[in-house]
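User:
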Amino acid sequence: MTVDSGNTKWVVACTTDDIDEEDVQRFDHEGASYAVYRLSTGFYASSGWCTHEQAHLADGFVLGGEIECPRHQGRFDIISGKALSPPVCVKLETYPVRVDGHEVLLGLPALAAKDAA
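Assistant: Predicted structure:
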């Protein structure tokens, strides 16, 4: 399900039951890949690929509000996307998340039809 709201397209990424607390899940949509996280403070999302090398963060480990890349153990802050430890030095793109009932929705930039024409 997709719902457009202004400049944001809200897409159902998973349900609240799909991700345990302190865990991450992969979500692919329209050729892009994302990582959806569940922390004690709520749900969060970022781009799915490590900015250092092409390793998917859903294969990594969630440790106290951070995601550790499975390839070279670089860490990112899940909420801000900030690169926290070498070898990563470029932050992750983060995305808004909202929960509607049991659905976890990821807010993606909406492409206006008039801009695409």
